[in-house]
Specification:
This protein is α+β, with helices and mostly antiparallel strands and about 110 residues long. Helices cover about 25% and strands about 30% of the residues. The termini are far apart.
């Protein structure tokens, strides 16, 4: 990643996309480790509801670890791990649904 220094405030308001072009959200704030003087995460608001579970939709946003950031320019690109995380959540939901269906069938 480019090591050019930027003002932290310049991150706020930038759109965040996955490396394959899926909109993630917009940077609301930057999470810092003051002792180490490093950015540790990006607080993302206005999140893409399709990527996050219904349980999280009432939340104000999500924190994306800064190690996932691949590029910073007019927009911020993060690794596609965000989408893979969503796919894993959907798989777990499907598995839980199957278990519930089996329980209902056994009870009938």
């Amino acid at each position: 990643m480019d090591e050019t220094r930027q003002e932290l405030t310049s991150f706020v308001g930038r759109d965040v996309y996955s490396s394959n072009g899926t909109y993630i959200g917009e940077v609301d704030d930057v999470k810092l480790d003051v002792g180490r003087e490093t950015v540790t995460g990006l607080a993302i608001g206005n999140v893409n509801g399709d990527l996050f579970s219904a349980a999280n939709r009432g939340a104000r946003g999500v924190i994306v670890p800064y190690r996932w950031v691949r590029a910073v320019d007019d927009v911020i690109l993060v690794s596609e791990i965000v989408e893979r995380t969503q796919e894993e959540s959907e798989d777990e939901t499907d598995e839980e649904g199957e278990v519930e269906d089996e329980k209902e069938a056994a009870a009938a």
